[in-house]
Amino acid sequence: SQPTPTPTFNPTPVPTIQARPVELVFLVNVLTCGSPRHAGCALEADKNASKNFVKAVVAGLPVGDAQTDARVSVVQMAAMSRCWPLITKGTSQSEINKDVDQMHSWPWFDLTLQEYAWTCIEDAMKDSKTDSKKFVVVLTNQDFFPSFLDGAMKRKRLGLDIMAIGVGSEMHFLKQVGYNEKTRKFDRAFLLPSFEDLADMEEKTIETICEVASCERFAVPAAADPTPYPTPEPTLEPTPEPTPEPTPEPTPEPTPEPTPEPTPEPTLEPT
Predict the structure, then answer these.
(1) Nearest to residue 88, comparing CAs of 78, 73, 104, 103?
(2) Contact, 42 vs 195, CB < 8 A?
(3) Mean pLDDT of all residues in the chain?
(4) What is the dihedral sign for C-alpha 189, 194, 195, 200?
(5) Which of 232, 96, 113, 108 is nearest to 172 (CA)?
(6) CA atoms within 13 Å, Cβ hemisphere of 222
(7) Cβ distance 156 to 177 under 8 Å?
(8) Cβ pair 177, 152 in contact under 8 A
(9) DSSP structure string for 204-243
(10) pLDDT at position 114, please?
């Protein structure tokens, strides 16, 4: 009899992961130095580093108006109970970058990271797309207040994803704010020694957001070295034309002395 053929198994199709739009809010809290200077306070270069970080993350995300594109807001607190909505619902990378350049910093004594900050964040997320994935990135060089932490824990239980990036000295509530409810780990809390280290967080931040929302990632363009002014070519002195030797006047032939006529012998007169 004929052998029973081995059945052919069709490969199990790989499920298609549907990308979701991202509703991203940056809460940027950069406090500047007072007098005397506080440990961890921000200098001018630090403020620029925080701006470059936000720009780089935005560049790595599909920001736009399409159904699965990301929408970005940047929120700052002007005081304990006042929002400073720098950007709301931005969908153009170039326009977002212009607004990021206007980000403020606050004196060290301002107490900003309290419960009211969540009101500002939720206002920025109003009218988000129905299926959007909401994500908050907190960047601060000031510790969190307990009321801010309470608000973070409550919202994470409702499905909000939060990444917490602290700069400077140890922060008591940083780990709890960045606690990942899904992995049960503190893998979304990062304490950096200085603002310069934010450059190392750009790819990690984009990766984390796109893991949550299955969004398309873009490569972060490397920061270009400043274009140096071209070294001017040295101006060469024109080579002078050789000075012609003067044409010597011809040496005149010597004028011959005239041949003297012979002196005649005197003629004697007759006596």
Answers:
(1) 73
(2) yes
(3) 79
(4) negative
(5) 113
(6) 3
(7) no
(8) yes
(9) HHHHHHHHHH-PPP-PPPPPPPPPPPPPPPPPPPPPPPPP
(10) 85
What's the DSSP call for residue 112? -
Token pair of 184, please?
Answer: 């049960």
3-state helix vs strand vs coil in the chain, percent to 5:
25, 20, 55
Torsion of CA 201, 81, 156, 59, to 10 degrees: -30
pLDDT in tens, 12-47: 554 455 778 899 999 998 888 765 455 567 888 889
Place 227 in a pLDDT band, splitting at 50, 70 and 90: very low
Please report which helix (H) or strand (E) contains residue 99, including its range: helix 93-100
Residue 50, exposed/middle/buried by CB under 10 A (0-12, 13-18, 19+)? Answer: buried
Split at pLDDT 50, 70, 90, the class of 108 is low
Distances (CA, A) of 191 to 3, 137, 186, 233: 67, 13, 11, 49
Backbone angles phi, psi at 97, to 5 degrees: -60, -40
Q: Which of 34 and 126 is assigned the larger pLDDT?
A: 126
- Give the torsion through C-alpha atoms of 80, 86, 91, 95, to 10 deg: -160
End-to-end CA distance of the chain: 190
Model pTM?
A: 0.72
DSSP 20: -
Helix (H, G, I), strand (E, B) or coil at 257: coil
Question: Nearest 5°: CA angle at 205, between 102 and 223?
Answer: 60
Which residue type occupies 148?
F
User: Residue 73's beta-bridge partner residues?
Assistant: 25
